[in-house]
Structure formats: C-alpha cells, structure tokens
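Collaborator request, handled under Task 6.
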Amino acid sequence: MSIKWRSVFVGVVLCCTGSMLWAQSQNASIIPKNNSPLSRFGLGDPLDQYVAGFGGMAGLSAAINDPYQLNLLNPAALPHLQSTSFEVGLYAKYANLKSNEKSDDVWSGNLQYMALGFPLKNPVNKSLDRIQSKWDFGMSIALSPYTLVGYDVQTKQFDPDFGTVTTALKGNGGTYKLAWGNGVKYKGFSAGVNVAYLFGKLTNSRRVNFDSLAFSYNSEFLDEISVSGFTWQLGTQYVYDFKKTDKAGKSVPSGKRLIVGAYGGPVTNFNTNSSRYYYRFLSEAVRDTILYTSEVKEKGQMPASFTAGFTYEEVNKLRIGIEYSTTRWSGYTNEAKPETLSDSRRIAAGMQYTPNVFSYNRYFQRVHYRAGLFHETDGRSIANDQVTKYGFTFGLGFPIIMPRQQISFIQTAFEVGKFGVPDVLQETYVKLSVGFTLNDNSWFFKRKFN
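Structure tokens returned to the collaborator:
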C-alpha cells in the first residue's frame, strides 16, 4: 500500500473517529440532541442503509450495480465489483418539528456506515492471466446504525382531582447491524445473500409529576431493553445487454442495458433482555420502589420485506431507475414492548448523468450528477393516521484519481422532505450525507516473478 493511499486511509479513520466523538458529545448535551417523538415506537426510527452515492438517487438499490461502488442492500450486485472498495459515510440532519402550533429546531448527525467489498476474482489477475470466465464472485462486510431512539417530550394536562400533571417522555439508544454479503454471477444473472447480526439497547422513561400538589409523590417508569438476533436477505439481478452489429458483422454490446433486480427477507426472530424499574419519589429522592425486575428474557419477530425495481443504463453516461418496496410491520412483535404497527410501502425513482467520463481537461464533465424522488408510508401511526414521508434528493459524485490510476470518489447527497401526519406532528428536514469511496486493485493482486 503506497504512502499516499495510507494517508487517505488514515484521514478516513480520523473522520470516523470524529463522528463517534460527535455522537458522544450529543449524549453530553454539547451538540443539540436528536428529538424524534415517533422513535419511541418499534425499535426506533429506521436509518438509511444505502451508501451516499445512491442516496442522491433516492436510495435506489434493487436494480443497481456498479464496478466501483458498493450496493449494501442487494447482494446480487457484489460480483459486479471490479475493484476492492472501502466505503465510509457520515450524515448531518436539520429538522423543524411542528405540533399544536409549537415548533422545535433539532440538529443531529453521526456515522452512517463503514463497509468493505471486493471481487473474489481480481480483474487485474484475470487480465494478466488472459482468463475469460462466465463466473464472477463478490463479498462484503458492513457495519451501520440500523435504528435510532431519541426523544424528549413533555405534555401538561389538568386533572380536577390533582390539578396540573406533567408527563415527561424520554428515550435514547438504538440498534446496529453487522452484515456479511456474498454474491455470484453467471453471464447476465447474479444472486446473493446478506446475513446480518442485529444488536443494540433501547431506553425508555416516563415520568409523571403532580405540579399542583406540594408534597405529592411523583413517579418514574424506566424500561431498558437489549436486542439481539440474526436476519438474512436474498437478492437477484439480471442484466440484459442491447446489441449492435459492428463493422465485421458481429453482434456486440451497444453500451445500453436493462437491469431487473429484487431482494427480500422472511420473518426472523430476535431475543430481548430487559429490566424494569418503577418507583415513586419526592424532591428527587427515591422513596418507594414499585417494581424492579432484571434479566427478563423474551422474544420478538422482525417483519418480512421485499423490494423490486428496474434500471435503464447507457454505460458511463446515463442511469435511470424506479423501484417499489414493502415491509410487513403488521407482523412485528416484541414481548418486552407490545405494540401494533402497520405495513409500510415505498416507491422511489432516480437518475444519474455523467457528461463525459473520459474528459481529460474538464473535471466537471467527469462528475456524476444525481437526482431522485420518493414517497413512503411508515409502519407507525398517530391518532389512527399512518405516518407518511416524501421528498426529493440530489447529489454529486466527485472522482479522484488515486495512485496506480485507481478511480475513487467523494460522494455527496442532499435530501429534503417531510415526515409525520399533517396538522398533528410534522417534521420538515434537510439531510446531508457525505461518503468516501476508496478503490484499489492491489489488495488481492498476485505478483509474478521471472
């Protein structure tokens, strides 16, 4: 590995370290905390699992493959890799929450993903050995936050017997996903499987204060739930290359192609280990324990999901796609925290355009320009109305020539949208994602000596 390559790698590690320190400072109230009232339902707010480059295209994933960029959702894209790819992503988000003519501004941000993917057959080796094979294989490993819990909500009500009663709801924590993907390709067809380990801890607190009673006991109900379990998904893709006739009269690929892809997973089980601490207090001093339990082991089920789409490509020029996904959250169960959710649906469309990828002296001709739209219904509901989310995205992919002429990228994606239930609880947000895609073919290069 060259000195320049090592410098870039160290820089990325420092960026990751900085993002983790940012997350720690959030807990210390140095940075404004994430405040999403809906994250108290289920396992929390689901976080995007696609890389920043595809985030500019509304997160398309079913029928997307790229020789120099990872697709973390559909493992069938892995054997299309032509280089070892290391990816890391960060995000920052600003949101304005409105409810009952009240509003609150919230900033949040963190590490979005870290991933490494590589072809199991090095393309440089195949070229030097003059090997032509109809088979290709790819593998990846990725770590990413999966859900986020973060809310701090207070409500005041008047009771004829007790006067003003303040209820404070607070929560924090979330879950993470460590995924291992494998894919195989034969001619135009590819298939793969992602196996992931889900783990994390959720903390939910409800405090009730009787403001009008000077010497009344107040109450707090504290639940802590640790989650762990395995999930898996299967994915497929088929690439149809349009043909043209060359000068010799042979039928050859025209550079235009259609990709059809799908992936999904069944219902899977997870385990919980929870503790509950309910108590009454006066002047912040604990006076009476109502309930205390620990090491309560229970079970739950993650829902089945399915995503399908298609993409039209003019290689190195244009990419246009659309996809539909659904998740059966109505089948979600959690014995440690029983609740009812609804099935979710998402439809998205996006495109990528590169003016001239081979331009020598005009850099912005080689930049990838991306845009997309999406609309989805969430599994959670407010006042019997299912939560919806919609918005548009745009992004830029800046190519960087690395040592040994390996093309890497700095990816940016912007997302502007709305989330919630109109006139009840509405979030208007702007999200910026920045990703670093570092490619190198020398990691699995077989050197030959005469």
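The cover message to the collaborator said: "The domain at 34-444 is CATH 2.40.160.60 (Porin). The first strand starts at residue 45 and ends at 46. Please let us know whether this matches your experimental observations."
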